[in-house]
Design brief:
The complex is a heterodimer of chains A (95) and B (543). Chain A is built from three helices and no strands. Chain A has 95 residues and is an all-alpha fold. Chain B contains 18 helices and two strands. The chains are: A mainly alpha (95), B mainly alpha (543). At the A-B interface, helix 3 of A face helix 9, helix 10 and helix 12 of B.
Chain lengths: 95, 543
């Protein structure tokens, strides 16, 4: 570990908790897929997937405990992806 | 620096392994830069030959030397090789690899083995494209853009060159990751972000595009292959797919790729101009930030390649507006370069002459880009020679000319040899005249309605086609003279000094050629990158 970097220890309990949360969210996705939410069904599934990926990135990939620069890098990628979706939607939804 | 240290550790002669292996397995960033340089020059001349043959074919309407199908192959391969194997890796792979660590005061890049792997991936990607030429089905004929549904339906070899492009993408991503990490982690003590040379800033901005944009083309390529092999309806309308979706995905990568090509070139310009104007760059921070803003805005203008594809009117207006915004940071750079030259003590040496040529040609390329960025005028000239001319003014007149400028600027440092500068200067009018005869006529041809990628044409276009073809001969003569001069210098050139141009960035403090470890001791940086006060013996050039 580099000098100046804060030490961090994630307990097995936390890992198990995150794992259980991921399983629960997966079950939730599967369960609500049987309910007809109409146009917002996709949106709900994406929100759940987003929460799951935040858990994986934060705990399993340790980003929560890393330097701010890594969080910034991830933010750049996310903002870029969001911008691509928004700009492409100006075509798809207005054709 | 201790001269013994330099001589014993000359990176060109240093042997870590027997024979050629000391090059092919070298993790030294300078040797890897040269591996890229040699392979790229070979690919460049193959593509120049293909382009030369294309122009020869266009000398007369109908068949001159090749039939229509061969012509399709010629323009596809010319585009693919020039884009994927020459101009995208181009300046970052050669000069970036060689000079980024030296300019920030590091011994090497952050991941030297990954760096070597990226060269191998580059070669493997190139081989995939070459092998596809000789397999059953024949060479790819889709154009370098691989537009669907044709690329899904054609019987020529599409999958192998697509895989080649996929692999080349990985090479590009690895280089990008390496450069970002190197800039963040390996700067010498005192080398703050705002003391970095502008070439490093440009490479840094480019590396971000490489990392963030390239995966998109990888995914797109995989989807085309899946559709070709398994007939899954993704892009082909006959199978329920959306062909415009392909164009979105393709250009989401391929437009930022244009900035992968041009941004490092702009960085080289920002190095050469202060050296030969003997004064600090005008507007250092603004140029640094303009690189980042070009990278950022350049990412969001991709659909200006698709104005006539059937996109919605809303998106056409949005993308046209965004396209005009890119002109702002690009203009900032050009004005700052010119302002740097103003009242400078200009020494008109070979590298600066190439830079002057760049400013002229790139300005024409940039301004004609506005014609294409405007919706109404684009409809008139889209898919004509006008687009081909614009593209070549920006990419050849921009990136390739600056690659030549960089070669002449850094050649003494890279090889420790000096070329014949008179010959280098004599090559420039040939290149300039040939270039403009070849490509300016294409603007007129396009405006008059000559479509791109056509094998034959109406007789009224012939005079301009002849001028253009003769231009290609003059241009190639200039290129032969320029490369011949450099090869001659490699073999018989006089030894170069440590600092032949009076440059002040760190590479000019190490011997020519540099030692394996670059620096005997990592330097401590105390000034901005273009502080000429010590050389000029005055204070008005101080940062």
């Amino acid at each position: 570990m580099e000098q100046g970097q804060k030490p961090h220890l994630i307990t097995y309990g936390t890992y198990v908790l995150v794992w259980l949360s991921l399983i629960s969210l997966t079950l939730l996705t599967v369960t609500i897929s049987g309910v007809d939410y109409g146009r917002i069904a996709l949106f709900i599934a994406l929100v759940i997937a987003f929460v799951k990926s935040v858990l994986v990135v934060s705990y399993f990939m340790h980003i929560k405990f890393d330097e701010a620069i890594f969080k910034f890098f991830i933010l750049v990628a996310l903002v870029t992806l969001a911008s691509i979706f928004i700009l492409t939607s100006t075509d798809i939804f207005f054709r | 620096m201790n001269s013994n240290f330099a001589m014993m550790n000359n990176y060109l002669t240093y042997k870590s392994k027997p024979g050629i292996l000391s090059w092919l397995l070298s993790t030294d960033h300078k040797r890897i830069g040269l591996l890229y340089l040699v392979s790229m020059v070979v690919f460049f001349w193959v593509a120049v030959t293909l382009g030369f043959l294309m122009k020869l074919e266009m000398l007369t309407p109908g068949k001159t030397i090749v039939d229509a199908q061969t012509y399709n192959t010629l323009f596809t391969l010319h585009g693919m090789i020039m884009i994927f194997l020459f101009i995208i890796p181009g300046i970052p792979a050669v000069f970036g690899n060689f000079f980024l660590p030296i300019q920030i005061g590091a011994h090497d890049v952050a991941f030297p083995r990954l760096n070597l792997l990226s060269w191998y991936l580059y070669i493997i990607g190139g081989l995939f494209a070459i092998v596809s030429l000789f397999l059953q089905g024949g060479p790819i004929d889709t154009g370098w853009t691989f537009y669907v549904p044709y690329s899904i339906r054609t019987t020529t070899n599409v999958i192998l060159p697509l895989l080649g492009a996929f692999i080349l993408g990985f090479s590009s991503i690895l280089t990008g990751i390496n450069f970002i990490t190197t800039v963040h982690r390996l700067r010498a003590p005192g080398m703050t972000f705002f003391r970095m040379p502008l070439f490093v800033w440009a490479l840094y901005a480019t590396a971000w595009i490489q990392v963030v944009a390239t995966p998109v083309v990888g995914i797109t390529i995989v989807m085309v292959i899946v559709e070709r092999v398994f007939h899954v309806g993704i892009f082909d309308p006959a199978l329920g797919g959306d062909p415009i979706l392909f164009q979105h995905l393709f250009w989401i990568y391929s437009h930022p790729a244009v900035y992968i090509m041009i941004l490092p070139a702009m960085g080289v310009v920002s190095e050469i101009i202060p050296t030969f104007a003997r004064r600090t760059i005008f507007g250092y921070k603004v140029i640094a930030f303009s690189s980042l803003s070009i990278a950022l805005i350049g990412y969001f203008v991709w659909a200006h390649h698709m104005f006539t594809s059937g996109m919605s009117d809303t998106s056409r207006m949005v993308f046209s507006l965004l396209t005009f915004l890119v002109a702002v940071p690009s203009g900032v750079k050009v004005f700052n370069w010119v302002a740097t030259l103003y009242k400078g003590s200009i020494e008109l040496r070979a590298p600066l002459i190439y830079v002057m040529m760049f400013i002229f040609l790139f300005s024409i390329g940039g301004l004609t880009g506005l014609v294409l960025g405007s919706l109404s005028t684009d409809i008139h000239v889209t898919d004509t020679y006008f687009v081909v001319a614009h593209f070549h003014y920006v990419m050849f007149g921009g990136t390739a000319i600056i690659l030549f400028a960089g070669l002449h600027y850094w050649f003494p440092k890279m090889f420790g040899k000096m070329y014949n500068e008179k010959v280098a200067i004599w090559a420039t009018p040939l290149i300039f005249i040939g270039f403009n005869m070849l490509y300016f006529t294409m603007f007129i041809l396009g405006y008059l309605g000559m479509p791109r990628r056509y094998w034959s044409y109406l007789p009224e276009y012939q005079t301009l086609h002849i001028i253009s073809t003769v231009g290609s001969w003059i241009l190639v003569a200039g290129l032969v003279l320029m490369f011949g001069n450099l090869i001659h210098a490699l073999l018989k050139g006089k030894p170069a000094e440590t600092n032949p141009w009076g440059g002040v960035t760190l590479e000019w403090t190490v011997p020519s050629p540099p030692p394996v470890e670059n620096f005997e001791k990592i330097p401590v940086v105390e000034n901005g990158p273009y502080d000429f006060s010590t050389i000029n013996g005055e204070t008005n050039g101080k940062n």
